[in-house]
Design brief:
Blueprint: H1 9-15, E1 17-23, H2 32-43, E2 48-53, E3 56-59, H3 63-68, E4 76-82, H4 86-98, H5 102-105
Antiparallel strand pairs: 1-4, 2-3, 2-4
């Protein structure tokens, strides 16, 4: 007979995966500066974040991984985070994609 350890509801909540969908709106697509902003947002939190796009799954803490997605304008990316600050991490990353692109400001 299998026995499962008692887990507090707080611990279970902190380990639950959170998911959010964002769209690449920058006319340049997911470029190096935007990838760096995503990586910096991830590093502020205690969460493991993965990005799914164009048939690939990459770690959001990897600039090269994010660039390998080759996300063009209009591409939808699925963000999934797990950890104590998963909600906050996803919120910060979503705000990176919501920023006004530099190309539109000039």
């Amino acid at each position: 007979m299998l026995r499962y350890p008692n887990l507090s509801s707080q611990r279970c909540r902190s380990q639950a995966s959170q998911i959010r969908v964002v769209r690449v709106t920058d006319p340049l697509g997911l470029h190096l500066r935007r990838c760096l902003a995503v990586v910096n947002a991830v590093r502020k939190h205690e969460a493991r974040v993965r990005v799914v796009g164009n048939g690939q799954i990459v770690d959001a803490a990897s600039i090269l991984g994010l660039l390998s997605l080759a996300a063009t304008p209009g591409t939808e990316l699925v963000l999934s985070a797990k950890g104590p600050t998963a909600d906050e991490a996803l919120e910060d990353i979503a705000s990176v994609f919501a920023d006004i692109p530099a190309a539109d400001i000039c």
